[in-house]
Amino acid sequence: MKKKLRIGILFGGRSGEHEVSLLSAASILKAIDKKKYDVVPIGITREGRWVTADDAHALLTGSQPPENPRLAGDPEATPTAAVIKRGEAIIVPPVPAESLQPLELHAAAELSPARPALALDVVFPVLHGTFGEDGTIQGLFELADIAYVGSGVLGSAAGMDKAAMKKLFAAEGLPQTPYLAVLRSVWRGNPKAATKKIETALRYPLFVKPANLGSSVGISKVHDRSELAAAMDLAASFDRKLVIEQGVGGPGAKPRELEVAVLGNDSPEASVVGEIVPGSEFYDYEAKYLSDASVPIIPAKLTAAESKQIRQMAIEAFKACDCSGLARVDFLMEPAKGKTKPRIYLNEINTLPGFTSISMYPKLWQATGLPYKQLIDRLIQLAVERHREKHQTRFTRV
After folding, report:
1. In CATH, which of 3.30.470.20, 3.30.420.40, 3.30.70.250, 3.10.580.10 is domain 256-390?
2. What is the pLDDT of residues 251-295, one digit of tens each?
3. In terms of C-beta distances under 8 Å and separation of at least 24 residues, what long-range contacts does 109-117 make, across chains too?
């Protein structure tokens, strides 16, 4: 009988997308094939505490885990990097500076036989945003030498940092709206000079964003100078680097917001193109998660040529950032103006997009012919394949 893979579903985290992560994890835990996989839930609290089993379930259901949960696990699994591999009922220290210190574990005699340490075959991180989608947790997986779903350290970091991402897109000649990157220290040090630089390079309306965040957290649409300072301050509260983009289509224009799901490793495939019609002025956090006014259209109403172009651009963006596993690539399309062909701009890539059963990424694959449960299977397969491929690489001269 074929051995069942043991899958760790990692969720929660310290980012502003904590709640979104819980929703994604709950959907995966409900849909994943329990006959095919042993599933271990692993939660990270807002404070950065790692919890498993019953405590992880409590985190999902809105109950806080105990302040001082009992530590249990394999006494030999002391480095934090090994925690992921050793599995259940281990709490990781929350302080990053102490993350390579030995864990304080109970003696082996105190371990509960009902909750033994588990070796994980694959980790499925559903950690959106900072500390989960930016290459940091991926580095831990690499140190632990464990297979994991999604992009590696480079792809995750590049996909999270919008300024770095845009440079990679530009190197591949992919069309983007004009933008500037401004450091928080520069903005706070001399806001008048920063404003002048922004207004010299870009035209209103503008979008001001934290460079390293997702789910539209901290993003503002700026119609004129009177709104710029508040938008910059908001974005600066979330990141040290800010990205200011020129709006597509000009004043009063509302571009079409298009999305493509990409799946694969070295030979990625693109889903059908979907469109989001926001219930607000743009597709912000409230429109995504707190309102049912936004309308998804799958597939988007495009010409065959437009759809082909967008899908190809999505694959090129995926490769440009050295992504693997999964990503959702977002586009902006100018409003139609008479017989003029509307231009299409690459907006950004999301390496760990929302993964509830009604999120755009799985819905796009559902419309392409790959149902949610099978999509989970495919992502796990891709993680295993990538891990095996990595083992073809030599790390020493001996």
Report:
1. 3.30.470.20
2. 777 899 999 999 999 999 999 999 998 765 654 545 444 445 678
3. 110/72, 111/72, 111/73, 112/72, 115/53, 115/72, 115/88, 115/89, 116/88, 117/72, 117/73, 117/74, 117/77, 117/86, 117/87, 117/88, 117/89, 117/90
